[in-house]
User: Fold this.
Amino acid sequence: KAISDYAFESQPNVTKVYIPSSVVSVGDGVFINCSSLTSVEFESGSGVTSIGYEMFSGCAKLANVKLPEDLDEIPEKAFFNCKSLLSINAPKAKSIGISAFQGCSSLKTADFSKQTTFIGQYSFSDCTSLESVYIPKTATLGDNAFSNCSKLSSVTLEEGIETLPYNFFSKCKSLSSIVLPSTLTTIDSYCFNESG
Assistant:
């Protein structure tokens, strides 16, 4: 079973969603701009490993999400501007797409795989409540990924990281100290601009 692209786009009366384990595929933008949506739960044992592009983008009241246990990818703009989202738990997610959580201003914690291979441009930009982050050496890092995370105060950079990209931690005003890995060879322009 599948949920097709943009199936519930901009439906103002959708408030809670439960997706049973019989659903194995979800399309792009399924719940985009559902202005009243507050919670989403994928049933335990869900076989969904990737959610769609912009799936919950613009769901400003979405606060609570239980993702599939085996989710290995969070695509571009999946939770873009979900201003009420409090936390995300995707411990097997190895790819965090461009602007996946950009503008999630209530997001305090984000748990994803320690073997993540991609953290995209602007993926957590403007997450002004995010307090800590772990950056694994396996990840390709995009520009501006954590820009304007004004409460970010704890950053762990795994040994093996060689480059920190452009504007990566810019405007992280609570980032007063950071331990740089000995393997680091390049800190790109404006990486820590207006931080600390």
